[in-house]
Amino acid sequence: MHDAMKSTGRGSAGNAVDTMPQVEERGLGAQDVQERVGRDQTNLVDNPTSHSLAQIIRSNVFTLFNGIIFVAMLMVMITGSWRDSVFGLVIIVNTGIGIITELRAKRTLDRLSILVASHPLVRREGRNIEIDHDDIVLDDLLWIRSGEQVPADAEILRSWGLELDESMLTGESNTVRKQPGDSAYSGSNAVSGLALAKVSAVGQQSYAAKLTAQAKVYTTTVSDLNRGINKILEVLTFLVVPLCALLIWSQVRAVGGWSAAISGGQWRQAVVSAVAGVVGMIPEGLVLLTSLNFAIAAMRLARKNTLVQELEAVETLARVDCLNLDKTGTITDGGIEFKALLPVDGVEAANGDETAETGKAVNALGVHSDAGNVGLAPREVTQALFDLANEENPNATGRAVLDALSAQGYESGQVDVRMPFSSARKWSAIARQGDGIWYFGAPEVLLSAFAQAGEGARISGFAALSAKIAEYANHGNRVLLIAHRAGDIPADFDAEPHLDPHALPVALALCAERVRDDAADTLLWFREQGVRCRVISGDNPATVGAIATQVRLCGDNPVRTMDARELPEDTAELAQILDKVDVLGRVMPEQKKAIVQALHQGDHVVAMTGDGVNDTLAIKEADLGIAMGNAAPATKAVAQVVLVDSKFSHLPDVVARGRQVMANMERVASLFLVKTAYSIIISLGVVLTGILFPYLPRHITYIGALTIGMPAFVLALAPNTRRYIPGFLRRVITFSLPSGIAIGVSVLLSSWFLPGIMQWDMHVKFNQRSLFTINAIIVFALGIVVLAQVARPLLSWRGALVALFAAAGIIGAFIPFVAGFFALQLPSGGSLVATLAALAIALLILATCQLIANLVRRNMLGVRLPRDRRMSRS
Length: 874
Known about the structure:
By secondary structure, this protein is of the alpha+beta class. The protein is built from 28 helices and 23 strands.
């Protein structure tokens, strides 16, 4: 690794290696570096995901569903009846969708890294050299330069005005000035200055790596829909294998026993009949349609710059009832806006009567932000503000001031001596010969120093000014004070930074984070939809609360704020407090995760938005993680949904799409489970009574495609904004079971009694194929009736959809190729009469079963189910 080091004549961010400050420290030698490399004390971070490519393929190929269908397909193909094995194609499609989805998730997680690729500058053997990020070792002397990301945890040894942006780690938007002895954490960014630091933690032990390791735990979203389907498959596991064996045994007995079946080749029909029962039990189309519907929803959201990284997350969107919002990057766009410059007049007066707002009203959200506010201050004060902000590396507030005033035509003025802003002392200053000194900084710091030089009226005026400043701050403004001391420049001005107590306040500069234009409307939509929104931020609770009030987080109700440092550690107590809090400030990353866990205790489905590394753990813990497009790579990697263009207003579209998927999938799942129910009942009846299976596998393939598969695909894409309610499986079963019982009983009655009845009429040609045809017609006709019930209301395109597939099924029987391939035979004469009679009885049975089910359901609940808790008809 030592060989990888290279001397260079340049540094990043415009700092040349050979022009770095001269220091006495020599740094590590080559032998020291080799020793640390041997002890694995390097900055290499390797956190692979738990799923390899082989594991992903195995987990999607070797599933219970695929195993049942594949074995059934092989059994049919062995008999030579390949036309009855077309159902096996669903394995290929469904497996392919699953593998592609998980590979996308794995690729995203493998790219996860909080630290950006860079070539840090270290000092070794008295030389400054650039090395790769992974080549940093413990105890290295590291140069932290403006514009770079800190690659490893370090302790500051020397500082030349280093200021770090730690918002990605802590959530606090203010930059932090670092002094010797302070810690600099990996993942933070240097916004100004320079420092020499000693590396204190590398690789897996660094702060950023620990967050990354927790975030990179491989997890997949388990949807309520998939969970319900899996429960169905688990139940079928105990039914399919024994039922298949029993069906084969019963079919062999029906044709005269094993000897006759083997010698006459009738074992083939026995196997095919058994597979017909098994395949009908498996809702293979539901599994496929679920994956396809999630994928289509993801593609539709992608057109609106919303990336769904886990398809199952689409369903979670429909169930969200708690939305935790990070202020910076979500409600605000992360930028600072210069709002106003207000002159301070008459502070010497005892009553503190400022005329700063003369002719300008202050509304409930703070001062107006139009450019006219700047004109309230004398031009020389505004020019002084421009020059105070015009530092070599201005912070976010300084850049906002410069942008606003530059648009007003202001340019750099004369500055003889400059005292750069320091977050440690909270102020900056400039001095001009003949003009005196101008100060710019935190009002509480400046006023405290100025008050030392006066009493009575002067102090009273300062108190009134402080109250006005507090009022502005409570409205979400970042208030800075400009003060002036006329006279000559003191000789020691630039030697020892100090505040002249005789300076007078002359103006207040009001800045604020830029609030997204769409934030208020988006929050209104969530309120109307019954989703509880909370703002969770690392910033001051009062500031966050003011912004939350500005965007009407709670509508007309007051916003309830709290400092997270007062939160209890007990999760149960925390859950109770959260019910009474709308805004939490000063929240640490671990607390954000704990907040999500506390909400889970109340059975809430939680979504979490964020853009910083400090949000990563909470996003990972939430049921649905939503990252902004400008978020840290780690945050985007662990989120299920990424708003690519960082527009908060996309969230309603995201939630609405999820609701559409789930409401429609609940509708179409009933179609598939009707088939599962009647297949189980028919199989049990066949086994218990020893009759031949009533139809062929190809019959159920034809009927299922026209009454379930294709209509379900269309219905799944229809508009539907009903909020999803837990209990998907229960509602689907209570709808599908009565219909399935009716169809199964109707087919069994037909198979038991029609052969004997038809034998009374010697003029009617009736054989096993005729019985198969009648039974197939019964299943098809009742399937169309169930489809019509699911597709209601029928006075729309839905009615036309039902009529189309009913007509297609009938017309297909008249097409020779279709009729031959699917073994369809139109009844005539006495068979037609028998078919019509059987259909009438079947419809009566269906109506009776559904009526009894409705009566039982109403009696159990005591009251009629609300409309939104029944199957959506919209």
